[in-house]
Amino acid sequence: MNTTIVIVGGGFGGLEAALTLKGVTGDAVTITLIDRDGFHSFVPSIHEISSGKITSRSIQIPLETMLAPAGIRFVRDSVMAIDHENRRVKAASGDLNYDYLVLAAGAENHFFGVPGAEEHSFRFRTPEDAERIRAHLVRLLAEEQKDLHLVLAGGGTEGVEVAGELLDLIKDSGREYGPAGGTVSITLVEAQQQLLPGFPTEARAFAEKYLREQGVTIITGQRITAVREGSLVLATGRELPQSMLIWTGGIKPSPVIADLSLPKDPAGWLIVNDRLHSPADERLYAVGDIVAIQGADGTVPLQRLAYHAQDQGAVAGINIANHLRGKGLIRYAPKYKPQLVSIGRDMGIYTQGNVFKAGSWVVTLKKAVERKHLMSYLTRPLLSSISRKVPGIDLFKRLGLKLPF
């Protein structure tokens, strides 16, 4: 009987799990990937959509285009619930039964119960969110009203990158800019004492100094306690005007796992062991934003980054194949790579461990990473398909020779 594997989510982790599994198992298993969107997006670049430098389509690949050549079934549908006891994914159009499940459903904005925040702010998680932000910004800038107050809630990577895009957009629009007395102002509010939590101290100080020099008002060590139409309130009671509030502060697990009766941590993230399956279900794996990984020494401290999700997807795929063959499972050990943060077109931050560098070259490097990622996922399934049809191609690959086409 053919083994059925279902993967929920076509982001970095889910796509990598699907392609890794197919590469390892070939036609021995049936793989179905389900996602409510029809595209895989390079999410680290969506801030550029908000300024109009790029469009959603320029960083997206149709999932069907990638998966079909690899022999992976794609279902575009919304997942409503997971019945892990009966090994069933409940989707809007019908159920999918599975022998193994990989959850890579991601996360969504967390408004922390702040009154009015969800109603009066723009979300920033998807290309579609960024398109809505762009459209609204263009309308506001076209109105040429006397005062325009743009506010960012959250000074992590997303907040800093969007701030840079707002600066570029305002400059390109021809509107006057200035935090005091100008027609447009940008304010960034961060609950912690510095921007970019989790980054080296030097990088955090640089980002704040650079944005201040560009005219951005930075408020740190303050939480937003209420949002109203046209204003917001800080924990000190101070009220700030806002013409547009973009919410980049914090995430919470996808609602797909909300009712899943498996171990979770206090914040609701799904607990998996270092083999990336639930400790209560050896056939349910999870990767990416939704997981809290428990190793031998406790929770693995890990930022929720795209490259970590990719690595986890590969390990999950290998482990499912190993479990099918009765082989031992491998441990997931995080590999730390450089982080690239762009602050508009002219400046970026590079960090790896405690190493920090800055310059416009970071922006160029990040764009190169984006192109490499999209190209690799466009060509990988095709080459995999060719390798199954052309005799001797595996020999070329093993010997590290260039393919003759």
Describe the overall structure:
The protein has 405 residues and is α/β, with parallel strands linked by helices. The protein folds into two domains: 3-36 and 77-109 and 252-328, FAD/NAD(P)-binding domain, CATH 3.50.50; 111-249 and 343-405, FAD/NAD(P)-binding domain, CATH 3.50.50. The protein is 31% helix and 28% strand. It is built from nine helices and 27 strands. The strands form eight sheets. A six-stranded mixed beta sheet has the order 5-2-1-9-22-21. Helix 1 runs parallel beside helix 7 (306-324). The two termini are 37 Å apart. The relative contact order is 0.15. Mean pLDDT is 91; it is low at 388-405.
Q: Layout of SSEs?
A:
Elements (H helix, E strand, L loop, with lengths): L2 E6 L3 H14 L3 E7 L3 E3 L5 H5 L8 E3 H5 L5 E4 L2 E5 L4 E4 L2 E4 L2 E4 L3 E3 L12 E2 L3 H17 L4 E6 L3 H17 L10 E7 L10 H13 L3 E4 L3 E5 L2 E4 L4 E3 L2 E4 L3 E3 L16 E4 L3 E2 L2 E6 L4 E5 L2 E2 L6 H19 L14 E4 L5 E5 L2 E4 L2 H29 L3 H7 L6
Parallel strand pairs: 1-2, 1-9, 2-5, 9-22, 11-18, 12-13, 12-18, 13-14, 20-23
Antiparallel strand pairs: 3-4, 6-7, 7-8, 10-19, 15-16, 16-17, 21-22, 23-24, 25-26, 26-27
Helix pairs in contact: 1-7
